[in-house]
Amino acid sequence: MAVHRPPRYPSEAETVSWLKRALEAKNEGLGGRRTAHVLVDQDPAYVNSAFARHLKPMGSPRIGAWRPDLICTVDNDGSEYLAGFEVKGASDLGKGVFQASQYRGGVHEAYLCVPGSRSLSDSLVTSARRNGIGLLQVYPKTLTLVVPPEPPQPEPSLYRATRRYLLGEETTRSLDLNRPLNYLAALVAATTDRGSQDVLVQRWGVSVPTARMALRGAQTLGLLHAGVPTARGLAWADILRVVGFSLDSSRSLTAHRQRLAQDAPGLAAVLRAILLAQEMVQLVVEALQGAPAGMNADDLAWAAHRIDEALARAIFGPPPEPPSEPWDLKPWSRFKLKANLYDVGILDSSLGPGASGGRDGRYDPRADWWRLGRAMTLSSPGV
To answer: H-helix or E-strand containing 187?
Structure first.
C-alpha cells in the first residue's frame, strides 16, 4: 500500500533566497521591471540558515512597527518605487496577507510571496485583492505574479523613513574603506585615459578588491557615475590638483598611516567638504553639536535616533531591547566610519578600545568617546 506523504515546501529562508535571486535576475526583476537595493531582514532564522550567504546584505528594515522580510526599489517607467515583501513557506498564509497589508503605508507596492509549489486557495487570492497587496509565487529562479498590487498610497512620513533607511544601508555598504584618501584616488584615476581600476592598482598600489571598493565609494560620494567623473567630481579633481594631490606622490600618506588632518590639511579639508555632503555624516555632526566635550557612542546613537530614527538605524543598527542595555553598534560605524571622520578632522577622538574587533564583548560603546574636531568649531584658528 502506497504511503501518502505531504508535499515538501521550502523554508521561509529558502523562499526568500528564491525571491532575491529572481528580483536580481537581469531578465526577471519584478514583473519585468528592474529592481535595485535589495535588502533582506536580519532575522535569526535567516542569519543562521543554510542560505545566509545568498541572502546578504541583510539589515533591520522597519515600516512603522513591522519588519518586512525584504525591501527593494523598483524602476517603474523611470520613477523609483519602493516595494516591501512578506514571505511565507508552508503555513500562516492568512497572517501573511495581514502583515503585507501593514507595509502599504511605507512603500508603493506591498506583496505576499509564497513558494510556487504551494497551492493557492480562492479565499487567499480574494483576501490579497481585498487588502490591496500583490500575491507572488516564487520558484528557484523565477516568480509569477498572481495578483497585482493596488495603486500606491504610501503615507509620506512612513515612506520617507523606509527610503532613508534603505538608502542609508546602501551608503554604509559602499563606503567600506577606512582610509578616505582612496576615494580621491579613485576620482583622479577616473580622469586618466586608462582604465581607472588598473590605474589604482598600478599607480596607487592597492589590490583589485580595494580598487573596486574605492570606485564604488567614489560613486556613492557623488564623484563618479558609472565610472565617469560627474560635474561635481571634475570640480573636486581640479581642486585636488591645486592642493598638490597626485597618484604617485600622495600614496605615501596611506602607506605610513599618517593622519590627513595633521599631515595633509589641504587634502583633509577637501575630504571634509565631500563627506559633510553625506546625510549620515550630517546626522553624526548634528548629534554631537550639542555636546562640546563629546559623548560616548551609546549616547551618540540615541541622540541620532531622536533626530532621525531611520537613518540612525542604518548607521548604528537597531536600538537595544530593552533600552537600558548598551547599543550594539555596527562594526562599520564604530570602526570604518569613525576612522574616516577622525582621519579628516571631523572628529578629534580616535577609535575606541576593541572597535576593530568582532562582537565578542571587548568593545563597549559606553567607553568609546566621540568628539567633534577643532576644524568643525567656530573657535578654530583662521575661522
So the answer is: helix 181-190
Cα(170)–Cα(50) distance, integer angstroms: 24
Rounded to whole angstroms, the Cα distance separating 152 from 207 reads 45
How many residues can be counted in the chain? 383
Residue 255, pLDDT score: 67
Phi, psi of 307 (to 5 degrees): -80, -45
- The DSSP call for residue 102 is H
pLDDT, block means (10 residues), the chain with 383 residues:
59 95 87 92 94 93 92 92 92 90 95 88 94 95 93 90 90 89 95 87 93 94 94 96 92 78 94 95 95 96 95 93 91 94 96 77 90 79 42
Q: Is 168 left (phi over 0), alpha (psi -120 to 50) or beta?
A: alpha
For 67-86, give the DSSP string: --SEEEEEEETTEEEEEEEE
CA dihedral of residues 161, 165, 167, 172 (deg, nearest 10): 150
- What 8-state DSSP symbol labels residue 332? I
Look at the block and give the residue holding cell 559606553: 366
| Contact criterion met (CB below 8 Å) for 124 and 97 | yes
pLDDT score for 378:
61
Interatomic CA distance for residues 80 and 170, integer angstroms: 15
Contact (Cβ atoms closer than 8 angstroms) between residue 91 and residue 85? no
